[in-house]
Design a protein that fits this description.
Number of helices: 23
Shape: globular
CATH architecture of the largest domain: 3-Layer(aba) Sandwich
Strand content: 15-25%
Bound molecules: ligand MGD, iron/sulfur cluster, molybdenum atom
Oligomer: single chain
Strand order of the largest sheet: 5-4-18-17-16-6-7
Largest sheet: 7 strands, mixed
Helix content: 25-40%
Distance between the termini: 35 Å
Number of strands: 28
């Protein structure tokens, strides 16, 4: 292997401390006013959240120099949130990785560049060595749902066919899995039930655990349009979020208590006979058991447990119960819990009891998170999954996919473990090697002091990213992957609409499109069979075949059909099954319509079970894993702010977004602040059983007095995940980010944020 000197990478101080210190270089808006004319514009979608707003990128030479609205794209009609407007500033950013790097033994805090081919050879050699010595499962893969669907398909194939490891999982484990598991248990399928236009005509809209205006900003517009038509909006959240400030009824729930609230609402629906008996009879099973379960949830008890006034609970039931049309939506606020699946099921129970699903203006949805939060959970990068939403443990499913891949089904690994368990196994020495792409676990996993310690123990760790993330700083080799605008493919957005990502520019320097990097590793291993695609289009063609007949059937979707129809909604089979109605050019925008056909019920009914009926599920209330006590008397809940995105590796580099919200702040109520002797902007230390974090206080009247809130977009000593608990839902394995117990004290000054964090011993 040849060694080269570290080339100058402007702005990227590769010797910088391993943990996050303030970034030195921000991309700013300088180019906006330079009057540079673009050569062309490229119609594509925002790289950030699951709304996947349509946008046009302005391109000059090989640079993205700005954005232009794309008014025709029906979902957002040209509108964008601040992140979407500024996203173009990342492509020319001085921190962009343009070389491969390896850890420099002479300088443990730094890296040196090496030729791309040598880096690939090092990765292949390490995989071969670890798998030979310790077995195929000793090498694990962590992947991400910001990747295009083609890449997520490739990641599953890479792990299962090339590496033959059981251990692949993805960052949607931290995001969509409680909703996914709940939806599968109740409906047999995991996708928003409705296109967003159904929001517009709903009479009552119930939003729980979703900071819509900051995290799904374009959806706010749908809610406000509905309100113009007279809709009542009910918001359930421990904080008066921006949407809650304009709602008709706000329910300030104590974190972790949603299953109790929704059982209480169902109790009142039954008591007042606000039920759709025909729907329950014809299209569901299990109502009686659930009715029995919620009998004890009278308004008084519900109020005691949830911390919401009895009057508000009655008011919500009075609006929701007898409504003719309605829409219920939730996001991570009810899902990021050790009982996240129960919470989700409790909301679905009140939807099923009302019978308001599968019809115009009657709907239910979980709001997806990452850019491809939907598509990224369908095609085989989840630890128990094969493409098309198929199951790795199901012999028929294994046979179908193995047939498409040209391999013996017996050679496919069995299901592996979830993302956090991969980290635990690394700590235990069972997993020796790790490849991570599109995932920043050092910032985003709970109890991240433990995560850092586990990563330190790996024999070999390779990270693929376009900016050196906090996680990549633990890698032995860093490979330069691609930004969304440097590649093409598809993603599936919040409504279940598959849209096209178009390439605007080429990756710079030695950076490569992610799928090429993965295939280069397979080739260097001499295991490239099935991983020799020449383009994302070729991958998509294979994915169509692999998904055919599955629940997430993409077989009738083509790039052309997507472009012609502003997206296609799955399921979309390539031929109309006998007895099924003909689908329109957009596929299946609304699920569960009367008379609809699906591959599980085969015409028996609209839901994805053999009898075509939806399931009521009992949702006994259990409290959070860690409740408050006299040592840690305050609830900590964590989440997001509008101008930062996820682990912040992208948005903390975009000047105008940093200016908008530069540092994490701890939101607390004036009453709590007064009790603790804290004033607005004071330094405060938030401490849990797992760690401490010192930030400035933001004293606001918009939060429950027993709860504090921290956004989690920062690493190192600013990271909220030093405090959070790694308790997981037993079914979905989602971590409990939304509740843990802390104490809060006034601090004189912040710690040395730039100092190297030592791993926990
Ligand atoms: N600006 C921005 N937008 C984003 C993202 C981002 O990082 N930044 N990330 C994207 C991704 S991946 C995701 S997953 C989504 C997340 O979108 P959301 O889930 O809307 O965002 P969060 O801030 O995680 O949490 C939502 C709300 O849950 C509330 N909450 C906390 N505990 C409870 C509880 O027990 N019950 C109820 N009912 N509410 C509770 C919080 O106060 C918060 O207002 O956003 C997507 N969009
Ligand atoms: N305390 C707390 N923690 C949380 C949450 C919370 O509410 N509270 N929310 C959780 C949720 S919902 C989520 S989704 C997770 C997200 O957690 P992560 O997935 O770890 O966060 P990201 O910032 O998306 O990390 C993705 C990394 O991949 C890189 N990347 C992005 N796109 C691409 C690509 O196309 N190719 C390649 N090669 N790299 C790419 C980015 O630069 C970044 O370094 O965080 C979770 N963590
Ligand atoms: S709402 Fe989401 S997809 Fe739309 S511009 Fe904002 S971050 Fe991008
Ligand atoms: Mo997420």
């Amino acid at each position: 292997m040849t060694e080269t000197a570290t080339p100058p990478v402007p702005g990227l101080d590769l010797k910088m401390i391993r943990e996050f210190g303030p970034f030195r270089a921000y991309a700013t808006d300088a180019r906006v006013d330079t009057g540079v004319e673009p050569d062309r514009t490229v119609k594509t979608h925002c790289c950030f959240c699951g709304q996947q707003c349509g946008v046009q990128l302005k391109v000059k030479d090989n640079s993205v120099i700005g954005i232009e609205p794309w008014y025709e794209f029906p979902f957002n009609r040209g509108m964008l949130c601040p992140k979407g407007v500024k996203r173009y500033l990342q492509q020319g950013h001085p921190d962009r990785l343009v070389h491969a790097y390896e850890k420099d033994a002479t300088n443990p805090a730094g890296f040196r560049a090496l030729p791309y081919a040598d880096a690939i050879a090092r990765v292949a050699e390490a995989i071969e060595r670890i798998q030979t010595e310790h077995g195929p499962d000793a090498f694990a893969v962590l992947s991400g749902a910001s990747l295009t669907t083609e890449k997520t398909y490739l990641m599953g194939k890479f792990a299962h066919m090339c590496l033959r490891t059981a251990n692949i999982d993805y960052n949607g484990r931290l995001c969509m899995v409680s909703a996914g598991a709940g939806n599968k248990k109740a409906f047999g399928v995991d996708r928003a039930a409705n296109p967003w236009n159904d929001i517009l005509g709903a009479e009552v809209i119930l939003v729980t655990g979703a900071n819509v205006a900051e995290c799904a900003p374009i959806t706010t517009n749908y809610l406000w349009q509905a309100r113009e038509h007279g809709a009542k909006i009910i918001v359930v959240d421990p904080r008066i979020t921006p949407l809650a400030r304009t709602c008709d009824l706000f329910m300030p729930i104590k974190p972790g208590r949603d299953a109790a609230l929704f059982s209480g609402l169902l109790h009142l629906m039954i008591e007042n006979d606000w039920l759709d008996h025909d729907f329950i009879e014809q299209h569901t099973v299990g109502f009686e058991r659930v009715a029995e379960e919620v009998r004890k949830w009278n308004p008084r008890r519900t109020a005691e447990v949830t911390g919401i006034a009895e009057k508000s609970i009655r008011q919500a039931a009075e609006w929701w119960g007898p409504a003719k049309t309605s829409f219920l939506m939730h996001a991570r606020g009810i899902e990021h819990h050790s009982h996240g699946v129960q919470n989700v099921l409790s909301t679905i129970n009140i939807v099923l009891a009302s019978g308001r699903i599968g019809r115009p203006n009657c709907g239910y949805a979980t709001i997806t998170g990452q850019a491809n939060g939907q598509g990224g959970r369908e095609h085989g990068q989840k630890c128990d999954q094969l493409p098309g939403g198929r199951d790795l443990a199901n012999p028929d499913h294994r046979a179908h996919v193995a047939g498409v891949w040209g391999m013996d089904p017996d050679e496919l690994p069995q299901p592996g473990v979830d993302a956090y368990e991969i980290i635990r196994k690394a700590d235990a020495g069972e997993i020796k090697g790790l490849l991570s792409i599109c995932f920043n676990p050092v910032v985003s996993l709970p109890d991240n002091n433990f995560v850092r310690k586990a990563l330190e123990k790996l024999d070999f760790f390779v990270a693929i990213d376009f900016f050196l993330s906090e996680t990549a700083r633990y890698a032995d080799v860093v490979l330069p992957g691609s930004l969304q605008e440097e590649d093409e493919g598809t993603v599936t957005q919040v409504e279940g609409r598959i849209v096209r990502i178009n390439k605007a520019v080429d990756p710079p320097g030695e950076a490569r499109q992610d799928w090429r990097v993965i295939q280069d590793i397979a080739k260097a291993l001499g295991r490239e069979k099935g991983l020799t695609f020449a383009s994302p289009g070729e991958m998509f063609e294979e994915l169509r075949a692999a998904s055919k007949g599955g629940v997430c059937d993409y077989s009738g979707v083509t790039y052309e059909r997507i472009e012609e129809n502003f997206g296609v909604f799955w399921p979309c089979p390539d031929e109309t099954p006998p007895g099924a109605p003909e689908l329109g050019p957009q596929g299946t925008p609304r699920l569960f319509e009367p008379g609809s056909w699906n591959p599980v019920a085969k015409g028996a009914g609209p839901f994805y079970f053999p009898d075509g009926k939806a399931r009521f599920n009992p949702t006994p209330y259990e409290g959070p894993a860690e409740d408050v006590d006299s040592d840690y008397p305050i609830i900590l809940t964590t989440g997001r702010v509008v101008s930062q995105f996820l682990s912040g590796n992208q948005t903390r580099r975009i000047g105008p977004l940093v200016d908008h919200y530069p540092e994490p702040k701890c939101e607390m109520h004036p009453r709590l602040a007064a009790r603790l002797g804290i004033a607005d902007a004071d330094w405060v230390t938030v401490e849990s059983r797992r760690g401490t974090c010192t930030v400035r206080a933001s004293v606001v009247k918009t939060i429950r007095p027993d709860t504090v809130f921290l956004p989690y977009h920062w690493g190192g000593r600013k990271s909220a995940n030093q405090l959070t608990i790694a308790a997981q839902d037993p079914i979905s394995k989602i971590p409990e980010y939304k509740v843990c117990a802390v104490r809060v004290t006034k601090a004189e000054a912040p710690p040395d944020y730039a100092a190297v964090l030592e791993p926990q011993q």
